[in-house]
Amino acid sequence: MAKAFFRLQKILRRTQFLLFFLTAAYLMAGSLLLLQRTRLVIQQGSRGTSSNQALLVPEEMGRVGIVDPRALQNPRPGPRLLVGMDALQESALDQRHSPHWLTSRNSELRQLRRRWFHRFSSEQEPLQTAGFKAMKHTAEHKGTYMGCFTHDARERTLKGAVFYDLRKMTVAHCQEACAERAYSYAGLAYGAECYCGNTLPVAAAKPEECSSECKGERGSVCGGVNRLSVYSAEQLRAAARPRRNVIYRGCFRAPENLTDTFPAFLIQPNLTVEMCSEFCSKKEFPLAVIRGQECYCGYPTRRFSLREGMDGLRCSGTHNASSTAGAEHCLVYQTPVQDTRCTDRKFLTTKSKVFVALSSFPGAGNTWARHLIEHATGYYTGSYYFDGALYNKGFKGEKDHWRSRRTICVKTHESGKTDIEMFDSAILLIRNPYKSLMAEFNRKYAGHLGYATDRNWKSKEWPDFVNSYASWWASHVLEWLKYGKRLLVVHYEDLKQSLIPKLKEMVEFLNVTVTEDRLLCVENNRDGNFKRSGTKQKNFEPFTQEMRDLINRYILTVDEALRGRNFSGLPREYVPR
């Protein structure tokens, strides 16, 4: 008995030792692997200033947002660039700025940016969450809760402003937004959608059917599926009045029959702009039209399109409505009310047979073009990427798989041969590279609506960014011209200057039929939610002469390539002469 017990004890001791040895070996192997990876990162970072600099790893890329251009220079023989500049006569410069070299460089840049983009997006999520937690304690809704009502997206009762915040929507946020737009009621649905109006919905629903929690405020109810939680915004309207923007649109020739053109009117002695704007806002019209003591409310239409403004002197040279504007002319103001004739959007009911890309270099206005296309066609646009900030503000196609074919077109910044040939056709959006580079630099360091700090602009990051991304701007266009199957080239500057004609071209290219009134509605809502407020003036010139020489060579290369494919060249405003 004692021998058997002794043998068992020896076996258990050996087993213990074996388990201990295996555990130690496993931990040592993991430590060695971790040290090896750390050493790789340090080595790559330390080589950042050498002449043979390695590409930055994703962690370093996320920190600075750029890659040293010397890391990407891999000159290969290419055709000489016929740009008519003495500085380009040397063969080394020909190789460095040739389409072949730009293509190889662009492939590496795209991979780095894709990694940076996903890391940046993941870092933004906790920041947004933390920011909202701080706001949550101070946000308390004001006004009377009117009840739970039925909600039909196609036949809405609250037909005023509509906006989304799929992450931070609160009752107070919706109420304040509606009050600033001069609406009396604020309704919330699906936990994230806000609707405004001046007429209370008729069809009431059971209180328990409004059960969706607000996306940005736990414990608060923001409607439900096809249900609206409606609150009064009357108490906030007086406080919001000073913040309302009544925008002067100009002096225009009055239509022949104003009462037939405009659905509502008011005749008031001593009429003022504020009185007319308030009247039209209550009637839920985006335009207030004044002729003497007459106030008319309505929308831009074919009969009154606001395209041909007149000299302000024809309207007595003043914005004061108390003076007579003349029988043939009228003053036009934009009220805080949103034009909702083009705000309804949906996914395609059947899969699209033609796979269309909306391709551009970053910072070229892709988000703005998507806003215009969605409101003109009534269909969501998709994205090769996922940008939570865009999704939260109503670009619902962001979360749809980019190859689902349920969207009218798909945003992409990719430009490799394989990436391009996946699409049957594409709208190629091109913008002035000087503006594009600045817009993308702002977005990288301050998001869609912010501005990079002076410290960012004056640091080493900015020249490195220009040297790296300027070549990408050129190669992006060159590759789409080379591999694109069916292209519509749209210049950002032309779209901005002649919105309706260019938007018509884009819509026809997408094989969608739209009404003239819908296009006029888009023009009335042209800016969208992702336009930087004004231009932040810098007291210094961000582009050095060396940067300009580099960018100008790329501009001439792209201009020549466009003309070689029988497209119109780049806009004259930024082609070097």
From TrEMBL:
Domain of life: Eukaryota
GO molecular function, one term: sulfotransferase activity
SMART domains: WSC
Pfam families: Sulfotransfer_1, WSC
Keyword check for Lyase: no
InterPro entries in UniProt: P-loop_NTPase (IPR027417), Sialate-O-sulfotransferase (IPR051589), Sulfotransferase_dom (IPR000863), WSC_carb-bd (IPR002889)
Transmembrane spans: none
Keywords assigned: Repeat
Protein name per Swiss-Prot or TrEMBL: WSCD1 protein
